[in-house]
Write a structure and sequence with these properties.
heterodimer, A: ten-stranded mixed beta sheet, B: Rossmann fold, seven-stranded mixed beta sheet
């Protein structure tokens, strides 16, 4: 963190000086822009290389953004998940039926006309064939009717909800493209039974779009589970979660752990870490290459315009004015690539994809989400490339001895 | 022709060189280029610096124009002791007091004639309107107002050099320095450029120092200063 700040500080100060130089120094910008245009082929090829790197950078960020949307929009701060101590995730957790009976009538749970707003749930994973021929684990969630009400972002878009005792399932609409045989009316083989798909739902980008849902008792019977995985319950307001957690954790009959639902999903976003690490590694390597491409183009520009630089210096332009001028030329070159790359990344927006969560060993479905903020980050990234790639050539341009420059280097 | 050692006539000196020396170093080896240059050049002079290759004439011109620094002695040019100026001050001094004319014109290819002439004015703080007027005047003087939107590649060699002359005079400097200004021109264009420079000297009173090998170009000057192996050899007054 400190090291990052130490690195950013001089870059920020240098950029501030450059912006000031843009206003205060007299070398006309048109000189740099036209010089770039004059070397169309090398300028454009460098800009395209930078566009590709920025495009990849924005797409990698959009993966993380998509995952973040999937998990952050899944949870509510006034809801809590009850798990076995140290289970961390629903898949590792188990709560026996007698404990669940005590838990579900906890006085701090919010109540509606049906009673306490809580859902006893079971989570298992099942291998399903994907459209690309591979297999992937999918989370199968057994839940009570109240569990649907606790997730208002989940909306039925086709058919109806499952009924208890009939081995019926509902599937997310977005999974249908990635997993064949999940169309309405088709049947799924799970836990030694055939399950009829009676409905499809949309979860507004939340992580439930990676889950098959059915009745909790049907799933427990089919998968021969004696205990539930977890309970999801709603409190009167977000402040009540701590009190609820304390009473549940202190109750010797229960000995369970309570996690605020939003915190639980925050932990799950770590599913995207391997993608992010790989993406960042690829971006880092490509960034190095792009900076060298920009540096090479600018060195060639300086070498080809040594006499011009000498002339400007002879006419009275100072070294720092030459430095700022060539630095801006490099920045414009890279910014062109940055804007192009951020624009190209838009083509990935909304494309549905998935990854395997190393926390739950099951598929997490999400969409590439290109936001204006991410595009701005891509452009800012190209600006940094322009700064780093252009600095040494610009420095060289400003330091060529005047009499040498006059002779053309 | 009247031959006399270092007598350039009377008048207020604009260039005063006292025991000026310049050496270059190649590793441990000192290579002297100029030694013991002592001369005063009066305001309004038109001087041709002559001598064989390697005699140090371009080095001397660079020192007078503030493009290079001496390794010994002192230079007072246009009222400023150049050794006392730091790099930034020297750059500002060049902008205010010296106009440059180069053998290969040295126009910026991506700027048109107007913009090339305007370049030195960008450093003066002059407003857009004032800059436009002064560029117009300079281009009128070199008879190129009809070519002001042309880029260097759209001009002939003679026209390019006239644009370069307009750029040299647009800030109204006291001193014009030229290094082989006709070296890249055919005879007709060379004669036009030399006539123009002569007018700048006689009509506008500009002091001109020109380095040339060309006897015709040197004949337009009022005095010729000959250098030999880095020292002043003689001055010659030209009878025109």
């Amino acid at each position: 963190m400190m090291l990052g700040l130490l690195l950013l500080l001089p870059i920020g100060a240098y950029l501030a000086w450059l912006i000031w130089a843009l206003v205060a120094y007299p070398v006309p910008l048109s000189y740099n822009l036209r010089s770039l245009w004059q070397r169309k082929v090398s300028s454009l090829s460098t800009a395209v290389a930078i566009a590709l790197v920025v495009g990849i950078f924005v797409v990698v960020l959009s993966l993380a953004q998509g995952l973040s949307v999937a998990f952050v929009s899944s949870g509510r701060s006034d809801q809590a998940l009850v798990l076995r101590p140290n289970a961390r995730f629903e898949l590792n957790s188990s709560i026996e039926r007698d404990r669940m009976r005590i838990l579900k009538v906890h006085p701090l749970l919010k109540r509606d006309a049906e009673g306490p707003m809580a859902s006893a749930e079971v989570v298992v994973v099942k291998l399903f064939p994907m459209a690309d021929g591979t297999d992937n684990n999918v989370t199968v969630r057994g839940l009570e009717r109240e569990g649907i009400a606790l997730r208002p972002q989940v909306r039925l878009v086709q058919g109806r909800w499952f009924r208890p005792g009939l081995s019926e399932a509902v599937v997310p609409r977005k999974m249908q493209g990635r997993f064949p045989g999940m169309e309405l009316g088709r049947s799924l083989r799970m836990g030694g039974r055939e399950w009829t798909i009676v409905g499809t739902f949309d979860a507004g980008g939340a992580s439930y779009e990676s889950e098959v849902w059915s009745d909790v008792n049907d799933v427990m019977q089919a998968f021969r589970r004696e205990s539930y995985s977890a309970m999801l319950g709603r409190l009167e307001n977000p402040d009540r979660v701590e009190g609820f957690a304390k009473t549940v954790e202190d109750d010797k009959r229960l000995k369970l752990e309570v996690v605020r639902e939003t915190d639980y999903f925050k932990e799950l976003t770590k599913a995207g870490d391997p993608i992010k690490i790989l993406g960042n590694l690829i971006t880092l390597i490509l960034t190095g290459a792009a900076i060298f491409a920009a540096m090479n183009t600018m060195y060639a520009a300086v070498a080809g315009r040594t006499k011009e630089i000498g002339t400007l210096r002879a006419l009275g332009f100072r070294q720092r004015e030459i430095l700022a001028s060539f630095q801006w030329e490099s920045i414009f070159l890279c910014l062109t690539g940055g804007i192009l790359g951020s624009g190209l990344a838009l083509f990935a927006n909304g494309i549905q994809t998935g990854t395997t969560s190393f926390e739950t060993f099951s598929d997490v479905s999400f969409a590439f989400t290109i936001t204006p903020g991410l595009m701005a980050q891509g452009v800012a990234f190209s600006l940094v490339m322009g700064l780093l790639g252009g600095f040494l050539p610009a420095w060289r341009a400003s330091r060529i001895p005047l009499t040498e420059a006059m002779k053309g280097g | 022709m009247n031959t006399d050692r270092f007598d350039l006539g009377g008048g207020e000196p604009i260039i005063i060189l006292r025991d000026v020396a310049k050496s270059y170093w190649r590793e441990e080896l000192e290579i002297p280029v100029l030694q013991g240059i002592d001369i005063e050049i009066p305001k309004g002079s038109y001087i041709a610096l002559m001598g064989p290759s390697g005699s140090g004439k371009t080095t001397l011109l660079n020192l007078i124009a503030g493009l290079d620094r001496p390794t010994g002695g002192s230079l007072e040019v246009c009222g400023y002791e150049l050794n006392d100026l730091d790099d930034d001050e020297l750059a500002a001094w060049r902008n205010a007091h010296v106009g440059f004319i180069f053998q290969n014109y040295n126009l910026v290819p991506v700027l048109n004639a107007f913009e090339n002439v305007e370049l030195p004015l960008l450093l003066t703080g002059a407003g857009r309107g004032e800059r436009r007027d002064r560029v117009d005047q300079a281009l009128t003087l070199v008879n190129l107002t009809d070519k002001m939107r042309n880029y260097p590649r759209q001009l002939s060699g003679g026209q390019e050099q006239r644009v370069a002359i307009a750029r040299a005079i647009v800030t109204d400097p006291d001193l014009l320095v030229a290094d082989e200004p006709t070296g890249a021109l055919d005879a007709k264009n060379a004669e036009e450029v030399l006539a123009l420079m002569e007018r700048l000297n006689t009509d506008l009173g500009k002091t001109i120092v020109v380095v040339t090998h060309d006897p015709k170009a040197a004949h337009h000057a009022r005095h010729q200063i000959h250098l030999e192996k880095g020292v002043l050899d003689r001055t010659v007054e030209v009878n025109r």
